[in-house]
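Can't paste images in this forum, so I'm doing it all in text. The chain is below; anyone willing to post the predicted structure tokens underneath?
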Amino acid sequence: MNRTTLSLFAGTAALAAVTGFAALDQPAATPAHTAEAAAQLPVERTTLLCPAPSLSDIADTSYTSFTPVTKGATSDGKAALQAATEQSADGTGGGKKKAAKPVLTPKAPGTPVTGDTSGADGPAYVGTAEGKYASGWTVQETTEVAAGTGRGLQGVNCTPADTDFWFPGASTAASRTDYVHLTNPDDSAAVVDIELYGKDGQLKSTVGEGITVPPNASEPVLLSTLSDERQTDLTVHVNVRSGRVGASVQALDDKTGGDWLAASADPAGSLVLPGIPKDATDVRLIAFTPGDNDADLKVRLASPDGTITPAGNETLHVKSGMTTATDLGDVTRGEAGSLILTPTDQSVPVVAALRVTRGKPGKQETAYIPATAPIGTRATSADNSGKGTTLSLTAPTGTAQVKVTASAGSEGGTAVSKTFTIKSGTTQDIDAPVPSGLKGTYALTVEPLSGAPVYGARTLAATEEGVPGFTIQTLPDDRGTVAVPEADQDVSVLQK
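Text version of the structure:
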């Protein structure tokens, strides 16, 4: 191609800093043209999507918004979390619509703010943050359901819109009621295909093709309506033909509670699933490979003392296009743990998730841990309590040092930070700091300082009437900064 002009390159860099959506791939360096290190600048605009929380009339949902303090962020801006447009009864989007009300208005960086809804009328929410509110903006949705299908604690991080999602761990078994929630933040309709893959391959269905999600609206899709086949373990693939959506799976069980299943990290040869609770009574691994080749994986557990191989589950064979599941039992045996999957030979892209059960029969609760990306620059967990929060960190490939900061409380308190060392191949449930004088909820940020990549998860627990309610959210990077090349960088390497 022709030599790209400096002005065009600088314009692209500016767009990336403003939107946070532009991805700039650094060209390979040559002896004559060595690329300079890109600067990390704060993102100045971001959008987050929160699914409709519950169909239960006795559900109570809280939303917690938090923006970390980010060096170099602008001094002004605005943010709001507002209900998506209500659809008519026939789902067409016609008819009278409710006026959008913010469920909360974010506070200045460094202080969380909460908002609440009750009952089954809670809508999906679309949030937009600009300026000082945007860098690392995190919103957590937490729902308590007192009884019935899915009873217990359900939690999900509100996510950006995207075009491709994988959800291993869903189900259409008789005891399960699983929905895919699709939320469209844009002013034009999105068209989505939903594919289901079971133990024998893709389930036959035409109902999941060409699903229209109206502008500024949310659409819950019951999985059992997409196919007559009943499968204990499913992988759901959400592929957006046009537009973009936010997508999450709400996995509800008649007897063992339920939780949100977030999307797995992009298909990869090696995966990390962090933060298995030390008192887990049963752990089930669900994996899927979308490629043409089968995958053979080593299964290892990173414990507080190092990496071990679970007896009887040393390897996992995943057939191409088929969902594979295996029970690991009480694999953590009273200690913190994270699951590490690596190829035994040829690297084949895989997605995976864990279904985690706590409690004894009759008083059990479940949650999900999808494979996740490393923390990167910084990760944020927005909704935490002084007694119910467990922060779990793992460094599979080498020792790492991290800084953990507890923010001020939503109703008062002073931020505090601590530094931790995570030894190579271990998982640590760390003694995370709590704000001094805490009132309300607080946020935790994790920033790697040196060493190998770190993966993390946060468990929030609230036991009621003997049932150990809990929810787990992984901690990928909070997308607070974007890499922007230096303005005077030589771009002649972009020549064809």
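The two ends are 5 Å apart (CA to CA). Confidence is low (pLDDT under 50) at residues 1-36, 86-98, 491-496.
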